[in-house]
Amino acid sequence: MELVTFGCAVSQAESEIIIGLLTESGLMEADVVVVNTCTVKSPTETKILRLLRKLEAEGRRVVVAGCMPPAWPGLVDEFPGFSFIGVNTSDITDAVKAASEGGRLVKVGDPGDKTLLPRKRMNPAVGIVPIAEGCLGGCTYCQTRLARGHLRSYTPRRIVRQVEEMLSSGVKEVWLTGQDTGAYGLDMKTKLPSLLDALSDIEGDFMIRVGMMNPNHAAGMLDELLESFKNGKVYRFLHLPVQSGDDQVLRDMNRTYTADDFRLVAAAFRGLDATLSTDVIVGYPTESDRAFENTVDLIEEVKPDILNSTRYWPRPGTAAAALKQLPGSRVKARSRRIADVFKKVGLERNSRWVGWRGRCLLSEANPDGTCTARNRWYKPIVVGGGRLGEHSDVEVTGHTYYDLRGRTVQ
Q1: Among 83, 108, 307, 396, which one is most buried in terms of CB atoms within 10 A?
Q2: What is the pLDDT of residues 136-162, one digit of tens each?
Q3: Torsions phi, psi of 323, nearest 5?
Q4: Mean pLDDT, residues 181-205
């Protein structure tokens, strides 16, 4: 079995479940390719379609999983020889079995509860834990909500059990993921801070990284959230996407918060000296020159430590795809401009870490033989080789705009 994964941490977690389920069922030796797809960006989708057509031309037996099948139902007819399951990962064994026997299974259904399913971790030190499926948003540009649907939170009891199992097998860093972690529990009369507190009470030496949350949900529970992040087991790291610094564009995107809401949450977490990561979409159809400058001004003002800048791409089935699109040359120029602005901001933010020394977790092996270590603030510090999952004292000796460079010390 060959597995190709596209997309976010949720997709990575589902790929780990796919391998776990196929291993348990004895299907890892099947002559089948599983493609775990993503719908966020048009270039990624183009790459996936190119791969699927190549596999079809080679006569390979293929199972298509992930966000594309439910978001794009016509895909099933476009590849009549392939099997499809979508985000209902637990059906992977039936799909692979059917494909391996020359048959076809099309079952793009309910995703179900993915906690406590068998999994094979790609990184032995890191456990990826989806805490919910879907979201409460209705963003005009997003296809993921078409694939994942409305918010369905997993129960705290099952999430705690999932984390306990991971810790017992050697995990040292737990990633809580979802389409919007800030919405967690709002469908079952609980909230993210309560879950964080329950997980922090688990015995052991481990750290928790909280995944992306939208500003409106973070603002609605800000005091409780800050208290939870003060716990020594929670990385002081906040992924808070703003998408635009212009309120009209945010309204057009149906983002349900303002740029000032973002500023409020960002400032509160800066009070904890937290590392701030944000996302912006450049070139949304209604983004005027002034609106774009408002985004630039916001980045220069707030100075995030990490900026994920994405050019807007019209996604089929979304409201924004029906709008008149901006010229590609203008969007490309804005993308270059925002990248240049962040390089200066990133260099400034990271320069203050040079000379820092403290305890870090070696959490990621790099292709060149180095390791990436993370400190309490989840700063990436590239050091010489080491064993994943070990703690080490690290001194920061240099920096780029996107990471730190350092060495382990006695």
Answers
A1: 83
A2: 999 999 988 888 999 999 999 999 999
A3: -80, 160
A4: 97
Q: Determine the Cα–Cα distance for residues 222 and 215; give it in Å rounded to an integer.
A: 10
Global pTM? 0.95
**254 in the Ramachandran plot: left (φ > 0), alpha (ψ -120 to 50) or beta?**
left
Residue whose token pair is 């976010």: 8
Residue-wise pLDDT tens digits, 5-31: 998 889 999 999 999 999 999 999 999
Token output for 207: 């750290």
> What is 357-409's CATH topology?
OB fold (Dihydrolipoamide Acetyltransferase, E2P) (2.40.50)
Name the one residue in this structure whose structure tokens are 């089935």. Answer: 317
Bridge partners (DSSP) listed for residue 176: 129, 210
Q: Under CATH, which number does the domain 2-100 receive?
A: 3.40.50.12160
Cα 297 to Cα 302: distance, rounded to the nearest angstrom: 9
3-class secondary-structure state, position 194 = helix
What is the structure's pLDDT at 145? 84
Helix/strand/coil percentages in the chain, nearest 5: 40, 20, 40
- Give the distance, in angstroms, between the CA of residue 188 and the centroid of all CA atoms in the same chain: 23
Residue 262 has phi, psi (to 5 degrees) of -60, -45
Q: Which residues contact 335 (CB under 8 A, 6 or more apart)?
A: 282, 283, 309, 311
CATH 1.10.1740.10 for domain 126-351, yes or no, is: no
Residue type, 376: R
The single-letter code of the amino acid at 284 is: Y
Q: Distance between CA 218 and CA 214 in Å, rounded?
A: 6
Q: What is the mean pLDDT of the chain?
A: 96
**Domain boundaries, given as residue ranges, for the chain:** 2-100, 126-351, 357-409
**Cα gap 384→371, rounded to integer Å:** 6
Residue type, 240: L
C-alpha 86, offset from chain centre: 18
DSSP 173-185: EEEEE-S-GGGTT
pLDDT of residue 42: 85
For 61-117, what is each residue's pLDDT tens digit?
999 999 999 998 899 999 999 999 999 999 999 999 999 999 999 999 888 899 999
**What is the Cα–Cα distance from 292 to 281, expressed in whole angstroms?**
10
DSSP state letter for 152: E
